[in-house]
Amino acid sequence: MSVIGKPVLYSYWRSSCSWRVRIALNLKEIPYDIKPISLIKAGGEQHCNEFREINPMEQVPALYIDGHTLVESLNIMHYLEETRPQRPLMPQDVIKRAKVREICEVIASGIQPLQNLIVLIYVGEEKKKEWAQHWINRGFHAVEKLLSTSAGKYCVGDEISIADCCLIPQVFNARRFHVDLRPFPTILRIDRELENHPAFRAAHPSNQPDCPPEATK
């Protein structure tokens, strides 16, 4: 374990849940180290006994911070918000806060788990693309509708929030599975707005220490 002063993020380069937390840490300008956990090497390092002690769900991310290990990306981001309120990622207005949580839950509960690696392995190679496309499309129709009343420059108003931390990695996943994004103009606009933001760019899979060289070509 690292010293208490330096958080350690257990992360996989292409994990959208890890990516959410990387964005939040970057936005809050919290220095951290990355401990790469390969989800594919040797059947997945997340399934080894050592990592099971860190996260019994055998998933990334996990964050060691303030002498504690936390799991689940939304939980981690809310902890960061509560303990380090500078550079806030939640609005002050209670309705806007609810709207942020709403968008996060649709993505984190209604889309991402259904196209997660463990599910796609179970579905099988032949059907995984069609399966992922179906659930991403279904979820993005809901997100686009929510954004029609909540979005300003970003997901909720004109300030970056945890909702944006969740949305951008999911757009990457949608492109990875060749989802037609033309029906989702607000999602695409927010993605374009944030693609070159330094915190989002630094968190991108292609900029991670465990990103394989062939993935950046």
Automatic annotation (TrEMBL):
Sequence ranges assigned to domain GST C-terminal in this UniProt record: 93-213
A GO cellular component annotation in the UniProt record: mitochondrion
Pfam families named among the record's database cross-references: GST_C_3, GST_N_2
Keywords: Cytoplasm, Isomerase, Phenylalanine catabolism, Transferase, Tyrosine catabolism
Gene3D superfamilies membership: 1.20.1050.10, Glutaredoxin
Cofactor names: glutathione
InterPro entries (alphabetical): Glutathione-S-Trfase_C-like, Glutathione-S-Trfase_C_sf, Glutathione_S-Trfase, Glutathione_S-Trfase_N, GST_C, GST_Zeta, GST_Zeta_C, GST_Zeta_N
GO BP terms in the entry: glutathione metabolic process; L-phenylalanine catabolic process; L-tyrosine catabolic process
Keyword Metal-binding: no
Swiss-Prot/TrEMBL catalytic activity: 4-maleylacetoacetate = 4-fumarylacetoacetate; RX + glutathione = an S-substituted glutathione + a halide anion + H(+)
A Gene Ontology molecular function term of the record: maleylacetoacetate isomerase activity
Main location: cytoplasm
Compartments where found: Cytoplasm
Pathway where it operates: Amino-acid degradation; L-phenylalanine degradation; acetoacetate and fumarate from L-phenylalanine: step 5/6
Ranges for domain GST N-terminal: 5-88
Entry's family note: Belongs to the GST superfamily. Zeta family.
Name this polypeptide is given: Maleylacetoacetate isomerase
Record organism: Gryllus longicercus
